[in-house]
Each structure stands twice: as C-alpha cells, then as structure tokens.
Amino acid sequence: MVYRFTPRFSKTCLVLGITLSLAAQIASTQSAAAASLKVDVQDIEHPKGTLMIAVFNTQADFTKNEAVQGKRIPVKDAVIAVRFDDLPSGTYAIKMFQDVNDNGKLDMRGGLIPTEPFGFSNDAPAIFGPASWSDARFELHDGQNQQTIHLKTLPF
C-alpha cells in the first residue's frame, strides 16, 4: 500500500507538529518552575524569637545578601520545617539565623562573632567568617528537594 501525502494532510501534520511543540515548551517552562525546597532546621536550643532564612541562587547575591526568596518563621519548637516553592532548577545556597531577641538582625560580639544561632545549607562550616558559596551551594532539581540544617551557636 502506498501512502500519499496530500497538501491538506501535510497542513494538518504541520499544525499538529506546531501544537505539540508549543505544548512541550509550555510543559518544560512549567516544570522549570515546579521545583520546591523543604528545609528542616534542627538543634534549636531555645524555642523563641524568629528564624530568618534566605535562599540565594548566585554567588554574588549570596555575598551581597540579596535573596531570591526569604522567610521569617516564629520559633516555637526545637525543629522547624520551612518550604520554598516555585524555584527554577539550578544552584542555590541558604543562610539563616535565629533572631532570639527579635531585633531584626544577627547580633554580633565585637562586630565579628555571632551571638545568636546560625546555619548554612549543607551544614557548611563558618570558620573565620560566614560559610563560602562553594561549601553551601547545592543543586535544586524539578520536584521535591530537601536540606537539613543544624543551627550552631559559637561557644565564646
């Protein structure tokens, strides 16, 4: 059997092809924005104040403290789960601190040493300053992603 493609059939295929192509583009755009991030914050010694948590998607913004998303969560328990939705897939890092006295800032001793609990994604170490982007960064993929961060309090 021989199949003949008439101009009418070709136009139908063309329209169908364009429609499927547009549908695929829309689906890929929606899936790019479909990533969500669940952050489990643990080791909260004093359940009071506010948890200040910020999500960054570039090293420059991480350094300048210009977050793509941020939240303020009242601290009432020793463990808190925070969810961020509609994040495109990519590289991210998290900074957070517990504002125990609710003054809206991370209190520092001598302008250098945090006196309130803090943490970074990947539980990145903060040695002689905040954690680095390279230690704190992680990949966010479509779907559900999770980070567990343990708050730290410096002993001095």
Task: Explain what the structure shows.
- With 156 residues, the protein is an alpha+beta fold.
- It has two domains: 1-32, no CATH class; 35-150, Sandwich (Immunoglobulin-like).
- It has three helices and ten strands; from the N terminus they run αββαββββββαββ.
- Strands 2, 3, 5, 8 and 9 form a five-stranded antiparallel beta sheet that branches.
- A hairpin with a 3-residue loop joins β6 and β7.
Layout of SSEs?
Elements: H1 7-32, E1 35-42, E2 50-56, H2 59-64, E3 69-74, E4 80-87, E5 90-99, E6 108-109, E7 113-114, E8 118-120, H3 133-136, E9 138-140, E10 144-150
Parallel strand pairs: 1-10
Antiparallel strand pairs: 1-4, 2-3, 2-5, 5-8, 5-9, 6-7
DSSP E strands, number: 10
Tell me the number of helical segments per DSSP (H or I, 4 or more residues long). Answer: 3
How does the helix and strand content classify structurally?
Answer: alpha+beta
CATH architectural group of the largest domain: Sandwich
How much is the radius of gyration in Å? 23 Å
- Fraction in beta strands: 35-45%
Q: Biggest sheet, in brief?
A: 5 strands, antiparallel
**Cα distance spanning the termini:** 86 Å
- CATH-defined fold name of the largest domain: Immunoglobulin-like
Q: Give average pLDDT, whole number.
A: 84
- Residue stretches low in confidence (pLDDT < 50, at least 5 long) are 1-32
In CATH's first tier, which class of the largest domain applies? Answer: Mainly Beta
Q: Bin the helical content.
A: 10-25%
Backbone shape: globular
Total domains: 2
